[in-house]
Every structure is written in structure tokens, then in C-alpha cells.
């Protein structure tokens, strides 16, 4: 495939999401340069054919690197990777990459400030390849939906904020890792969309868990009740695709003691981001506030072990597993 930004792609943060995303870039035939604080995470990508950088700054100084992706846990980590002592923006002599894409889920106001600082103060290195229609480096926020399964399959949805030129240049690259690339508006707009999506998902998962737990407490098999939901008005992603009750669906985190999947810690972080946005917009979020408390309860009960957010069914609702079928037929 020929990209506008043909060249080496730098990838910062190759954890659960970043590793399969970077692997898909390698599979497409693109050279990839990776950096992660965790050397074991870097080694896995090097075994797949990537090269390793010693810092984001070095990535920013490496000739031939045209674009950088980052996939980091939270706002502070992104700030460190971009603006820390060895951050990307410390590149001596200007940046080699002109397209900077952050796919982490972080605070939109920081994203907008970072994009403005990059547009105002950052320079490209002499001879660096430019994004068409932009004289200097361009930042795009592109958080994702689809989880680890979507990252592995290359079917993520990217929610983008940034200039038209930036998103136009980012799109062919993002399409190597995802099936949909939506442009929502200015820098930070992608983050707002992602946070709203996860607010709805958090509440939806709590609602499905609550109703299935009540049915089970009243003697219904959650698998049978799920079937009813899925052909009735309660049908949703949490009932149909990602059911939180052990024994209802195979190959989802609830089938594996809530291991893998979307960490309840990330869900708590995303709800805190939603509450921060709501505070500044003076928008009431009564369900979001309650959901934040419930997912905190999941984290407290899981004793520091990483656990999928569907574990709300177990830890908040004391939900029973499915007994494997409809009784009385
Ligand atoms: P992860 O913890 O598995 O991976 C993050 C990686 O970043 C780790 O390898 C860590 O060592 C590295 N890292 C941390 N700070 C760093 C720094 N300053 N410089 C370089 N590397 C650093 O997290 P993840 O599951 O890949 O999630 C990443 C982001 O994607 C989060 O913002 C999360 O909210 C979002 N997200 C996750 C999922 C999911 O299902 N896991 C789904 C959608 C969105």
C-alpha cells in the first residue's frame, strides 16, 4: 500500500492495544520503530521485525520517520512521551515526523493544548516530509473503540480530532489498523467522542448486569433471560456481544474469570474523564457519577488484579453464573 506518509512509523506504547496495532503495521509491510518503558514489550515487537528506539526524542530525530503513533495509559503518560525530558518534542534540530497521532484515551483539554503548542512552537527538521497542506508538524487525536480483539483483527474504530489536512493524512495509516475512521472536529473532539462512548458503555454494562442479576436471584437462568433481552427492547452490546455472566457466551472475559478484555481500571479512568468534562460543561451526569462509584467498587474488590469491567456483575451485583440452559423445557 502507498501512503501519503510513506516511511517509517514510530510507535510509542506497545502494551495490550499498541502491540497488535504496531504488528498490523508491520504486516502491511511498513518499517516500524518502537519505544516503550517496558523492555519486554519492545522485545516482542522486535521479534516481529520492528526496530527499537531508546526514547521518543530519538524517534523524533530519526531520518525516515514520517509519522508517530502513541497508545499510552493516561494523560500524564502522553505528556511525558511528548513533552518530558526525553520527549518527542525535544528532538534536536526539529522533528523528522510531521504527522503525530495519539490513540490513547486522555483528557481532551490537554489534547487541544498539546495540538496548539505543536502547531505554534514545533518545527520540522530540514528535508522532513510534510503533510500535504500543512507547513509544520500536525497533531491528530485518534482514540479507538474495539478493544484488544479489534486491535488484533485490525477492525478498530478511530475517532479523530484535528485539522482536515491532518486527518486526511492520518486516514490511510489508521485504515491499516481499523475499519472506520471518523472525523469529529477540532483537536480534542476525538477524545470527547471516545469518552462519551465509554460513559454510555459503562452505564449499559451496569444496567444489563443489574437486570440479569435480579432475574437470576428470582430463579431465572441468565442465559435464558439474555435470549429474551436479545429479541426484546433490552438488547445491546453488553447483552449480545460481551455478556457479563459466566457461561452465557464463549470467548468473552466473563468466560475466563474476567481476565483480558477492557480493564475496570481504564473504565474508572474514562468515567473520571467524563466527570471532569461534565464539570467544565456544567452538564449533569447522575448515572455517570453512580457508575464511577460502582466501577471503583469493582477495583476495590478485585484486590489489584487486572479485571475486565464486566466483573461488575460479580463484584457489585453478586450475580450467579448461568446454569447452562433453560430449565423446564
Ligand atoms: P497497556 O497498559 O496494556 O499498555 C500501555 C503501554 O504503555 C505499556 O506497555 C507501558 O509500558 C507503556 N508506557 C507507559 N508509559 C509510557 C511512557 N511514558 N513512554 C513509553 N511507554 C509507556 O494499556 P492498553 O490496554 O494498551 O491501553 C492503552 C490506551 O488505550 C489507554 O488509554 C486505554 O484507555 C485505551 N484503550 C484500551 C482498550 C483496551 O481494551 N485495552 C480499548 C480502547 C482504548
Automatic annotation (TrEMBL):
<dbReference type="InterPro" id="IPR006115">
    <property type="entry name" value="6PGDH_NADP-bd"/>
</dbReference>
<dbReference type="InterPro" id="IPR036291">
    <property type="entry name" value="NAD(P)-bd_dom_sf"/>
</dbReference>
<dbReference type="Pfam" id="PF03446">
    <property type="entry name" value="NAD_binding_2"/>
</dbReference>
<feature type="active site">
    <location>
        <position position="194"/>
    </location>
</feature>
<dbReference type="Pfam" id="PF14833">
    <property type="entry name" value="NAD_binding_11"/>
</dbReference>
<comment type="similarity">
    <text>Belongs to the HIBADH-related family. 3-hydroxyisobutyrate dehydrogenase subfamily.</text>
</comment>
<protein>
    <recommendedName>
        <fullName>3-hydroxyisobutyrate dehydrogenase</fullName>
        <ecNumber>1.1.1.31</ecNumber>
    </recommendedName>
</protein>
<dbReference type="GO" id="GO:0051287">
    <property type="term" value="F:NAD binding"/>
</dbReference>
<keyword id="KW-0560">Oxidoreductase</keyword>
<dbReference type="GO" id="GO:0006574">
    <property type="term" value="P:L-valine catabolic process"/>
</dbReference>
<feature type="domain" description="6-phosphogluconate dehydrogenase NADP-binding">
    <location>
        <begin position="8"/>
        <end position="185"/>
    </location>
</feature>
<keyword id="KW-0520">NAD</keyword>
<dbReference type="InterPro" id="IPR013328">
    <property type="entry name" value="6PGD_dom2"/>
</dbReference>
<dbReference type="InterPro" id="IPR011548">
    <property type="entry name" value="HIBADH"/>
</dbReference>
<keyword id="KW-0101">Branched-chain amino acid catabolism</keyword>
<feature type="domain" description="3-hydroxyisobutyrate dehydrogenase-like NAD-binding">
    <location>
        <begin position="188"/>
        <end position="315"/>
    </location>
</feature>
<dbReference type="InterPro" id="IPR015815">
    <property type="entry name" value="HIBADH-related"/>
</dbReference>
<dbReference type="GO" id="GO:0008442">
    <property type="term" value="F:3-hydroxyisobutyrate dehydrogenase activity"/>
</dbReference>
<comment type="pathway">
    <text>Amino-acid degradation; L-valine degradation.</text>
</comment>
<dbReference type="InterPro" id="IPR029154">
    <property type="entry name" value="HIBADH-like_NADP-bd"/>
</dbReference>
<dbReference type="GO" id="GO:0050661">
    <property type="term" value="F:NADP binding"/>
</dbReference>
<dbReference type="InterPro" id="IPR008927">
    <property type="entry name" value="6-PGluconate_DH-like_C_sf"/>
</dbReference>
Amino acid at each position: 500500500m502507498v501512503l501519503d506518509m510513506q516511511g517509517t512509523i514510530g510507535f510509542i506504547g506497545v502494551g495490550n492495544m499498541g502491540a497488535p496495532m504496531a504488528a498490523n503495521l508491520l504486516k502491511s509491510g511498513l518499517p516500524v520503530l518502537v519505544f516503550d518503558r517496558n523492555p519486554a514489550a519492545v522485545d516482542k515487537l522486535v521479534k516481529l521485525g520492528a526496530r527499537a528506539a531508546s526514547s521518543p526524542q530519538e524517534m523524533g530525530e530519526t531520518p525516515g520517520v514520517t509519522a508517530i503513533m502513541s497508545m499510552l495509559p493516561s494523560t500524564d503518560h502522553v505528556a511525558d512521551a511528548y513533552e518530558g525530558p526525553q520527549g518527542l518534542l525535544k528532538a534536536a534540530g526539529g522533528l523528522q515526523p510531521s504527522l503525530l497521532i495519539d490513540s490513547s484515551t486522555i483528557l481532551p483539554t490537554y489534547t487541544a493544548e498539546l495540538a496548539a503548542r505543536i502547531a505554534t512552537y514545533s518545527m520540522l527538521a530540514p528535508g522532513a516530509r510534510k503533510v500535504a497542506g500543512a507547513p509544520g508538524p500536525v497533531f491528530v487525536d485518534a482514540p479507538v473503540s474495539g478493544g484488544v480483539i479489534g486491535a488484533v483483527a485490525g477492525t478498530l474504530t478511530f475517532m479523530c480530532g484535528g485539522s482536515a489536512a491532518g486527518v486526511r493524512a492520518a486516514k490511510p495509516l489508521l485504515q491499516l489498523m481499523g475499519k472506520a475512521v471518523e472525523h469529529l472536529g477540532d483537536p480534542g473532539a476525538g477524545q470527547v467522542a471516545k469518552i462519551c462512548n465509554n460513559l454510555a458503555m459503562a452505564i449499559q454494562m451496569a444496567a444489563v448486569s443489574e437486570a440479569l442479576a435480579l432475574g437470576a436471584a428470582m430463579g431465572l437462568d441468565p442465559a435464558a433471560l439474555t435470549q429474551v433481552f436479545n429479541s426484546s427492547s433490552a438488547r445491546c452490546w453488553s447483552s449480545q456481544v460481551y455478556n457479563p455472566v459466566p457461561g452465557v457466551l464463549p470467548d468473552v472475559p466473563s468466560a475466563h474469570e474476567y481476565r483480558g478484555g477492557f480493564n475496570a481500571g481504564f473504565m474508572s479512568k474514562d468515567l473520571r474523564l467524563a466527570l471532569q468534562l461534565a464539570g467544565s460543561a456544567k452538564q449533569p451526569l447522575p448515572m455517570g457519577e453512580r457508575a464511577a462509584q460502582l466501577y471503583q467498587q469493582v477495583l476495590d474488590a478485585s484486590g489489584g488484579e487486572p479485571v475486565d469491567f464486566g466483573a461488575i456483575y460479580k463484584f457489585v451485583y453478586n450475580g450467579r453464573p448461568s446454569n447452562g440452559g433453560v430449565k423446564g423445557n
